[in-house]
Predict the 3D structure of the following.
Amino acid sequence: MKNIIIITIDTLRADMLGAYGKASLTPFTDSLMDKMIVFKTPFATGPYTQASFQGILASEYYLEYGKEKKLNKDKTLISEPLKNAGIFTAAFHSNAYLSYFFGYNKGWEVFYDSMSDDVTDMYPFIRGNDINKKAKGFLNNFSFSKPLFLWVHYMDVHEPYIAEDSYLSKIDPSLKLSKDEMFKLFKEVILKRDISDASTVETLKKLYMAKVAETDQYLKELFEVFDQKGLLDSSTIIITSDHGDEFSEHGGLSHDGKMYKELIHVPFLVYDKSYSSTVIDTPVSLIDIPPTICDIMGVGPAPSFKGRSLYPFEDVLPHTLYGEAMGKLGHKEKDTDKPIYYMVEDGLKVIYRKDGSQWEAYDIAGDPKDIKDISSKLTEDIKDRLNSFLNRNR
């Protein structure tokens, strides 16, 4: 039986990687392409962590049981059926929303979420090099008497974008900012969603890109550990993200409750030494990851999983995709926020914001940046299909 490793990089837009058009920013990840399955049009199930990770790890939609602060007890994490099948499960991350407090420790034999570690306002998470040390320490003591399911999550691309000079100079050698100046941009621009100065927004994007380049190095170091342990020869490795970030493409910053490309089009790559370079154009959802992992490992999926297996990858067929979140327009969800939904079908992305009953629609191929709203052409039949999804639990 193969080992499965899933590496999730918080806040990573697809268009930052060479596989999706951004050459040279991520040289290590790009170097893996000859053994990679590239899903060209993957969609997260939501535009921020709470809304997306329930798809990635539980194959469920965020609002399946209404808006809840913690993972619902009826939602099954991918770690649970794998552990029950005799597979060793281990996780290393530093995202508070994915901690034991929110119920994400279910089914893991080793679970590190960093909640007992000290962090700072400037670096409010454990950085990638330390996550790698945790994973390496675990692998050094792992007997490999069982198949392994390993999850590693990096937070480094996430704001506040405190970039190291060595990476920032590669993005823009003329950009000189102290770490205090970078943090000030976070507090006074990102948190306030201030897009009034286009040059400042562009500076923020460059800081973000420097963090992407830094995380690519962490990924390289982690793969070196895998190679030392023989895992590259015995594992299928999934690389993805929970959501992207906005830089004024649709009037905001960060990752609010919107369903535009810069937030929900994320990378979805599958590395395996036995594969050859393959690009799959069929749109897929990250909600399909848990049943796909189960299929590869020969384990039955949990009854609660809403996605479907994409394995074998060469046989992926088109199907309707959905996503949902709270339509928050700020750093935190408010009690007054209303849900927002999307549906992808036949090359069309339809968005419905419950606040004001607002409809939008975009041609995925012809309008890749979601600029020209063609909702005036929506038929009642299309609206009814999305309405059936959002009313499914009533």
Q: What stands out?
A: The chain has a mean pLDDT of 96. The chain has ten helices and 16 strands.
